Amino acid sequence: MEKARALIIPAQNRLEFTELEKPGVRDYEVLLKVKACSLCTLDRRVFLGTRARQFPFLGGHEVSGIVEACGDGVVGVQKGDSVILTSAYCNQCEMDRTGRGTQCINKAKEPQRVNFNGFIQGGGLCEYLSVPAWQVIKLDPAVDLDHAALTEPLACCIHSINKGRIRLGDTVVVIGMGIMGYFHMKLALLRGARVIVSEMDEARRQKALEGGAHAVLDPSGQDLCEEVRKLTGGLGADVVVNTIPSPAVWDSAIQTLAPYGRLIAYSSQDSKTPIGVDFGMMHSREIEFIGTLNPTIEDNDMAVKLIAYGLIDMEEVIDGRFSFEQGKEAFAAAMKPGAYRVIIKY
Ligand SMILES: [Zn+2]
Questions:
Q1: Per residue in 159-208, pLDDT tens?
Q2: Gap from CA of 105 to ligand 1 centroid (Å)
Q3: What is the DSSP letter of 32?
Q4: I need a surface site. Which of 78, 113, 168, 284 has the fewest CB within 10 A?
């Protein structure tokens, strides 16, 4: 029996190397040999126990690789193609068919990508995966596979930017300059917006300025709403994107919106406590609240193009690269405060 190496989280604060059975290739599926897997915030949170998931856990959903074999019926890719892995869209539900695949209703019913007695989210921390052909996107062979592994987080931000309907000359406030804040800033700039970044960390504020932010502010000493009004002739921001899981920012984020402003709830929120919202104000100022989660297949397609065309410098968000054998060191590096992304390479 051929084996596939995997790095699993058997319990909170534990990592373990294991060998799983190398998956076979089924009809309409491709066997993917993973080449690069980035450690996402979710993988880190599951490891730390701050995000509840069933153990043992096999993570890794920011993945690029090479097609090793194709099952019967596969038409879009062939052996040797480099690809990225998208989310587990079934491609058969109404959500997927109407451009709303982020809410695919059959995610939990998908066949396992590799035989693993536990919970799989992505699975890129296993060397081989068998996935439906419509869940991969073929890359130009010249594209760097480390960069391509970051398609999914970039595509998440594209989904968000698209929902925010950013126009030329809009003022966009990005709260938080982690990797997601960074991608939002870059994408909003590509859309012709002016970006103001709110971030506590000085080094990250500097990174925002170097990356093209019009202005930065420190929310520990400056009032977001007041500062943004100074820069917008009193009107406020056209779009505010919140990329941090802190309930404390919502009030000022809402107050910072201009009439017709759109507030994007991007980050997942650890707190489930509702905040009070004045819907009379929402009505009279004609503001919108927009939730956004994950990317659709179309967003992934756009992200692949931005990476392939060099429109976003992906090196800016890669802090380190580790071999699969150094997987535990890779997790330790990803856990360091201020880290954006760490890549594990097979
Ligand atoms: Zn579906």
A1: 999 999 999 999 999 999 999 999 999 999 999 999 999 999 999 999 99
A2: 5
A3: E
A4: 168
| Secondary structure letter of residue 9 according to DSSP | B
Q: What's the rounded mean pLDDT across residues 257-264?
A: 98
Confidence at 247, pLDDT banded by 50, 70, 90 = confident
Residues 6+ apart with CB under 8 A from 284: none
Distance between Cα 258 and ligand 1 center (Å): 36
pLDDT reading at 102 higher than 80: yes
Two structure tokens written together for 147: 């960069």
d(CA 122, CA 151): 13
Q: What is the pLDDT of residue 126?
A: 98
Domains of the chain are 3-149+313-345 (3.90.180.10), 158-291 (3.90.180.10)
* Ligand 1 geometric centre to CA of 74 (Å): 19
Task: In whole angstroms, give the CA distance from residue 139 to residue 84.
Answer: 7
**Ion ligand 1, residues whose Cβ is below 5 A away:** 90, 93, 96, 104, 106
Structure tokens at 57: 């856990």
Please tell me the distance between residue 100's alpha carbon and the centre of ligand 1 in angstroms: 9
Centre of ligand 1 to C-alpha 239, Å, is 30
**One-letter amino acid identity for 289?**
F
- In angstroms, the CA 91 to CA 206 distance is 42
